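Task card 7
Instruction: Convert sequence to structure tokens.
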Amino acid sequence: MKLEENAALDAVGKVEQLNENQVKQVWSRCLAIIKDNINQQTFKTWFESTVPLKLEDNKLTIRVPSQFFYEWLEEHYYSLINRTLAEVIGENARLVYSVLVEDGPDELTRHAITIPSAKQVLGPPPTYHKDSLPPATSPTPAALAGRATGSFLNARYTFENFIKGDSNQLARAAAVAVANNPGGTSFNPLVIYGGVGLGKTHLIQAIGSHALNHQRADKVFYVSSEKFTIEFVDAIQSDRISEFSSFYRSINLLIVDDIQFFAGKEKTQEIFFHTFNTLHQFGKQIVLSCDRSPKELKGLDERLVSRFQWGLTADIQPPELETRIAILQKKAEDDGVELPQDVIEFIATHVTSNIRELEGCLIGLLAHASLKNEEITLDLARHVVKTVVGDIRAHVTIEDIQRTVSEYFGTPEDLIRAKTRKQEVVIARQIAMYIAKELTNSSLKTIGLHFGGRDHSTVIHAYQSVEDLMKTDERYSRTVQDIKKRLQLYH
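Output:
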């Protein structure tokens, strides 16, 4: 039975108690009107999780996930909701919230309390039951800032403009799988790790954008670990931990960036631990990023680290030459700039550590050319690269070294970066690491990343081993010097 067909509503302006399906029909009509007056993401975030419970005496009761939701709806959408109720039910329509609350952040069980819409109540303030929570005077600014804008995703970070290469192949493939089926794969959580400026933030945000744009998930939320911590502290100070917890546990796809910054923050780790457990238990997708493998993270609770390892951990390594060239070409194309091929190859050859520096060189090149009205040439590229990455020792890159060492020993180049412990490969790898430290400005960490993601201590050990052998083995020393001469001759 449709509401407009109810004679009692027209005659008396009142609706007797309706059955469950009829109440759903009434609220569906209200939601249809609300949806036409706000953007899609806002509607999904704040209204799709509401559940109509009953309609009695023109009083519509809806359930919301937390007091946080109740306050937000009252604060920002009261007028819209009120107009909609009047249109669908009648001028005397009133709204009542059934709010799910918890006893504390560690509790998974929740119970409901009833709160009338505060702005719709005339006369004395409403009387609450002893176990009810009165509405807070206003949402905490730091905790609530920007929530209505949606998921905090950067529209530029998509799979379409993420350049795929050998260095990120596994991470990207896993990200696409998760984006197409959030919570439905064994990659939960998906942890993507790697050094600074390698595209971790781009990739994890691309997951959220794809899931939203293709209707794979409705409630998607991206947050940095720093922002999560700040909001949690604000929630403690304003006694709103329950609302904070309820909001994060209502997300279907939660993306948290730079989890290494949770280190040392015990209370933040505790709340995130319970949030993680709840989301995972209900099949919600969790995506995380950090600067190293979870098992190498220091200052984190072991039980939290163990959960980070439940799903898939995928690393992103520094991009190889071909990928760096492709990144520069795509960036130049997006900026509407045509760059000479030799300039692109020069920048890609000498900027090897991360994508951020690569893009920084391109921006610097375009800035010099436009501000000084200069033509983009190889000489200008040399000047810009030197400004960004410092002095280029003999213009030698780690990849040049790997290639030259590989050719010298007749060892496949990919084996030098692999985990194999074959003696002949270990010798070639250690010499390559030694020369990389000698002839490039790369840090120990960067060198290690180029050799299969090895730790900086491995590079130190290789350097010391080669140096010691060169002092005692003349033939070995000559081999190292020959390789260095080849590199310096052709660069």
